[in-house]
Amino acid sequence: MKYIRWFAEIGADDVPLVGGKNASLGEMFSELTPHGVNVPDGFAITAEAYRHLLDQSDAWPRLHEALAGLDPYDVEDLARRARRAREIVMAAPLPADLAGEIGAAYERLRREYGEHLEVAVRSSATAEDLPGASFAGQHETYLNVCGEGPLLEAVRRCFASLFKDRAIRYRVDKGFDHFKVFQSVGVQKMVRADRAASGVIFTLDTESGFRDVVFITGAWGLGENVVQGTVDPDEFHVFKPTLRQGHRAVLRRKLGGKEVRMVYSHGAGRETTRNVPTPREDQQRYCLGDDEVLALADAALVVEEHYSRKAGQPTPMDIEWAKDGLDGQLYIVQARPETVASQRPVGLVDEVRLGAQGTVLASGRAVGSRIATGPARVVRDVGELGAFQPGEVLVADTTMPDWGTVMKTAAALVTNRGGRTCHAAIVARELGIPAVVGCDDATRRLRTGDEVTVSCAEGASGKVYAGVLPFTHSRIDLSTLPRPRTQLMVNLGNPDLAFQTALLPAAGVGLARMEFIVAEHIRIHPMALAHPERVQDAAEAAQIAQLTQGFERPADFFVRQLSEGVGTIAAAFYPRPVVVRLSDFKTNEYAQLLGGRWFEPHEENPMLGLRGASRYAHPAYADGFALECAAMRRVREDMGLTNVKLMVPFCRRIEEAERVLQAMAALGLERGRDGLEVWVMCEIPNNVIQIDAFARLFDGFSIGSNDLTQLVLGVDRDSTLVAFDFDERDEGVKTMIRMAVEGARRNGRHIGLCGQAPSDHPDMARFLVELGIDSISVTPDTLLAVTREVLAVEQRLGQPPSPPSAAPAA
Prior knowledge:
Elements: E1 4-6, H1 15-31, E2 42-45, H2 47-56, H3 60-67, H4 75-91, H5 96-113, E3 119-125, E4 141-145, H6 148-160, H7 165-174, E5 183-189, E6 197-202, E7 213-220, H8 224-228, E8 234-239, H9 240-244, E9 252-254, E10 260-264, E11 273-277, H10 280-283, H11 290-311, E12 317-323, E13 330-337, E14 348-354, E15 360-367, E16 371-379, E17 393-396, H12 404-407, E18 412-415, H13 423-431, E19 435-437, H14 442-445, E20 451-455, E21 461-466, E22 471-477, E23 487-492, H15 498-501, E24 509-513, H16 515-522, H17 526-530, H18 538-547, H19 554-573, E25 578-581, H20 587-590, H21 613-616, H22 622-638, E26 644-648, H23 654-666, E27 678-682, H24 685-689, H25 691-695, E28 700-703, H26 705-713, H27 731-746, E29 750-753, H28 757-760, H29 762-771, E30 775-778, H30 783-796
Parallel strand pairs: 16-17, 17-18, 18-19, 23-24, 23-30, 24-25, 25-26, 26-27, 27-28, 28-29, 29-30
Antiparallel strand pairs: 1-2, 2-5, 3-4, 3-5, 6-7, 6-12, 7-8, 8-9, 10-11, 12-13, 14-22, 15-19, 15-21, 16-20, 20-21
Helix pairs in contact: 3-4, 4-6, 16-19, 19-22, 26-27, 29-30
């Protein structure tokens, strides 16, 4: 056949012949199916066929005339000329030899898969999927095509879609000649995802660019909803290094709304799909099981490693997957190099900080780690796009590829629907603007003309604030920043910030707090999960049941949520050390959790009450502590994140320390087994006075300057009445710190400080360096400033810095 190439006959080098999508499909079908990557068979209609069509109808001069003098920034002129160009292509009759070859190839595919074969018909331009030009969503795809007649019609429409408004504008922006880009078409067995699920895989984290994870999104039904942002999809991360080591565990997950599902339409007309409401029970469960997530991650690694070998350099990939509801198999249906996050300069870190807080008008998933301000423009249908002005914030239910011309001039994007791999998110990343997607009600809560601030610099949750708020933006080149001899680490509790924070030049995490994960991601008291029958309030019991639905035991919810939160932080910094402090809620704080009031006593001074080590060793909390330990075992054993060290807070006495260590060992966390290190907070004067005895039980110390200060000075740090007396720089506190550092060094134990003092007071950081402390852990936003301060002190002390290249890579 002259105009047909089967996937088995083409590969990655055939982009000029069959376009980017088809070349990639052929490459995967030929090279990767033997390695377990399941790719549906099909064939490509070559770019030569497209040229043959236009040659036979003498269409080239008319196409040149249609686009001559085009002003791509004039929306109406662009639409008029694009429509004329498409009409020229659609009016060209398919040459008989070409139509005959397509029909013969279709019959061969039917013999392979069955008489009632349905196919996906996808455009594949010859400039697609090149570095820096994804062409995502620029050309047409037709699904559920059955029969030779409908197939030929879909092919013609794919050819014509080379002249969609958005495709023309995209070529102008990327510098491509309209008449040197040709259209190939792929015809592939249709995967019946309408009866199962589908989605997108990236072999990096799309927000931070962190490359050690596979990021999978999915929803029920056909995949266009995920790509276009019509639904809020489920999200999963899998950690590559430990997956390669054989650890079969999902790192983290987020349940999406999945409000509608796309299915086949059997009505009249050209529309082959439609959206129907997703049943509530399906909305509330994940579209993939853990084994399926891991199988997709396995396939993604094979795809990425193959394309990286071909390119001679690491090549993160953008992959589409689908599950067939008839045969139950998972298929990879497209793959192309990722062209946005992977192209960011290495070693450059953007510091974007909001200077003030305001009224939150809408919130959703953050895309872009940036902040922008401007007047809102609510667009409820395509007819309102003409009023959009450059610099406005585009607010819509969802965005479509046809909106590209307007989106390029927007300050930010805000949508009701969509996840982090939807069309709006992809375009926002490519344009370098913030987007908040999946807000549910942004078009109702925002009004056209209102000045707003769109912030995506506060973690995974993006916010739209009322008014214009101040913010700062600076870019730092880490490749030129030397590293101090003193280990500088970060304090971190929010897993949503982990991948971004790990890009900073930190030696690890000196304090990973459990409390944020418990309060924000679990929200239920551990004992209420271990003993839900003891919760006497019907409303609270119902909330607990709602949050834990789908789990065999409510306690399993706690273990999974806590392990995935801690695991995300540990994976982000792997193999750098991550010191995880066991829970340090006070009784009044624990009581605020769902079900907590049924398990917590009232204390007049919770700061000095049942907290830390005393709680772990207390029979009233034994089952709750067992859940904490089970979660930490899962992190280290199932997830393989052995860079996690555990730390016991507020340990008052040697006997108490011994009881806690015995309890941990009985629960599978024995100090020294599989390299487990157990540290202790040095925050009680008795920890300093008896540091030699504590050193025999623990592998390291971390000075908690907040509690140490309150206990040395006798100041309740929660009391505003005596706050003026709370000062970590008091000579008595500094004497205690000096004694702790000397005692740890005397016993050959690591000692660091993880309190707030060095983040707030440069002179305190100088004091610690002069003492010769091993590590200082500070808040991420102060890390670079403290780094410069420590370098200056070390230089004065005659200690040469380490070169920038010695920094651990994230």
